[in-house]
Each structure stands twice: as structure tokens, then as C-alpha cells.
Amino acid sequence: MPALTPVTTTHSGEHLPLLDLLPDSNPIAWVRNGEGLVGWGVYASTIVRGPNRFADARTWWQRQLYGFAITNSVHGAGTGPVLFASFSFSQEDESVLIIPQVIVGKRAEKSWITWIGTSPQPTLNIDAPALMHNSITWDIDKDADDKWKARVSSAINRIHGGELDKVVLAQDFIGYCNREIEPRIILKRLAAEYPSTWSFAVAGLVGATPELLLRLRRKMVTSRVLAGTISKTGDDEHDLALAASLARSSKDLEEHEYAVRSVADALEPFCTSTNVPESPFVVHLANVMHLATDVTGAIEEKLSHVDAFTILEQLHPSAAVCGTPRENARSLINEIEGISRGRYAGPVGWINAAGDGELGIALRCGQINGSSIRIFAGCGIVAGSDPVKELAESAAKLIPMRSALS
């Protein structure tokens, strides 16, 4: 029998800004309000795809865990070996799994470091280097707006025809740099401007999502559902009035209810009880406001096999990124959207050795490919949608990435 590979977790002794620790090659991150996990180096990585990609991911992760000899003096969420995952929206596309060689975590006043192998504890880089700015030239299609509004109009007609209740349509834009794009400065700008979102980087997919698809911890599950959006003006008094109008908007409340119900229905079979608030609250970000609902549940103790992979398989894709009914919406997306989403709008985050973890929906993000990047935005279309307003909402959702790349 081959020797087990040591995995060591201990207190780091440093309370440093996590994103400042990242090296310049393939950074890995999941950070919110300065807390979370960053990683670098690749101990192991694989790609999964197809209808069984979540189960295949679990099998691969467990196979890796069998080969570890774990020493953990810190304990708690995010300690020990951690798998970072970025799943595709569609089963046809590739999902990426990475076990970093080194992981640094921070929560409240606790910091820790996990590393794999027999080498001594890695030294943390406390002198953050100056980062090169990304100068992006965008590929312009003068007809893009009209084409997208036509797709929205087509979707509205199909909804009025009774085929479905809601569909989420996305569009993409490609930008080019005169050198390889620097992901760390994107992460740091997003984290500074949108600290309440989850800034993430996995295998070149970089973004800051406001939507937590799944937090599983000690048999408690939470999902934050966002659907229904309005742009902010920067005038506090006016924005408060806009927030009130969003909370009363029948169109946005309808869109939100479909998304909440899809998540609650997916969680219910695993839970002894679920809590679904009657009314959403309004999340304020730097550029937009969203209707939000936190759905929570207690996992049935007897269901020992339930882990993050199990729940992801049922949750994804939720109505927040696909539509209702799910299969009808997915079919319409394939028919009229006109792009491959890749890992945009798929689950992204981390899972630990116990099967617990945190994963968001990969929104407000871009896929880096050397010197180019593809950014995305999507909108939920319901019977009361208006193509012009949906175009404006899409433009607002692109602001975080455009600004971080400017």
C-alpha cells in the first residue's frame, strides 16, 4: 500500500489581507468581507462533465481524500484539505476541480494555513507586489443590443403563449489585452468595491457573486436567492425610494417567487424543516439593488449520505439562472440564447473533507483565457418584462467587471 500524503493545518500566525497573499500564477480565491479562503499551486486537478458531473466530482474528491494523512490543529469550516470547484451551467460543458497545494484561511480573528506534502510550512508572502493594470479593448458588435432585445421579445412571446413562466437569458462580451490578463487586480478591485459579495477565482473564472447557492455546515443548509433588480443612482434618498418600488414591483416579485420556490422545493426532500420568509428583503450593492430571500433548512439526521454534491445536483440550475419550469426554460435557452455559458451561472466555491462547503452562483464574472476575457450578464424574463428595461438591467450587471477591468 502506498504511503499516505501528509495534509497539515495549523494556525498561520499572521492576520494578513488574504488577496494580498496570492501569487501571480493561477490564483484561487473565495473571499467575502476579508474572510474566506485563498489558495495556490495544484496538488491535483480534474475535469468532469455530463449528467453525472456532481456525483463524479464527489467520487474523485473522495478518492483523493483516501490518500491523505490529515493533521488538523485548527478545525472548523474551511480547514483541512479543501476542494475548489467551478461547475458548468450546462452538463455538456467542462467543470473544473482543483485541490490547491497551499490554502490560507481567515475567519474573525483566526487565521490558518493548510499545505499538502512533506515540505515545511510555506512562508507567506507579506510584501504584496504592485500589480499591472489590465488595459482592455472590447470587441464591439453594433447590432448586439438589438439582437438581445429581439431574444427577450421572443422569450416574452413564448411565456405569453403558455410554454413557461420564466426564463433567464444571458449575453456575453469579449475583451482583449496587449498581454496576459492579471486576475489578482480584478479580484482586489471587486473585493474593495463589493465587499459583501463573494469574490472568487477558480481556473481563470474570476468574479464577485452576490448569490450564495449553498452553504452546508453541520447539517444546516442556507441558500440566498436573488431575483429582481433595479439600478442605483448614487442619490441615497432617491435610491431608498427605488428600493421601496422594487419591493412592490409585481414583475420583480413574480420573478423572485419563482426563484425562491425552485430552491425551497429542491431542499425540502433533504430537510426535516425549511424556513422560507414570506417577503424578500432588498440587498444594496454599489451599483444595483436586488430582492433577496435566505432559505434555510435542517438536514434530516438519518440522511447521512447528503453532502454538498447531493444538494447541488438538485439545486442547479435554479430558477434564478435558468427559469420555470426548469426543463422548458433550459430548452428555450438552448434554442434562442445563442452562446455557450461555460462555467458562468454554474456553482463555484469550495467543499471540505466532510462534504460541507460554500458555493455561490458564478455571476458578475469573466472567464480569462490568456490575453482575452469573456464577461457575462443575464436577466430573468417573465410575462411583465420589457426588452428595453432588461437591456438596461443587463448593462448594470456588467458594471462590476467592466470597472474592475478598466
- Compressed to H and E, one letter per element, the order equals EEEHEEEEEHEHEEEEHHEEEHEHEEEEH
Q: Poorly predicted ranges (pLDDT <50, ≥5 residues)?
A: none
So what's the CATH class?
Alpha Beta
Structural class: alpha+beta
Domains counted in the coordinates: how many? 1
State the CATH topology.
Anthranilate synthase
Integer average pLDDT: 92
Cα(first) to Cα(last) distance is 53 Å
Look at the structure and name the CATH superfamily: Anthranilate synthase
CATH architecture: 4-Layer Sandwich
Question: Total number of β-strand segments?
Answer: 21
Radius of gyration computed on alpha carbons: 21 Å
Describe the global form: globular
Kindly estimate the percentage of residues that lie in beta strands according to DSSP: 35-45%
Q: If helices are DSSP runs of H or I spanning 4 or more residues, what is the number of helices?
A: 8
The largest pleated sheet is described as: 21 strands, mixed
Helicity range of the residues? 25-40%
Question: In brief, what are we looking at here?
Answer:
With 406 residues, the chain is α+β, with helices and mostly antiparallel strands. The chain has a single domain, classed as Anthranilate synthase.
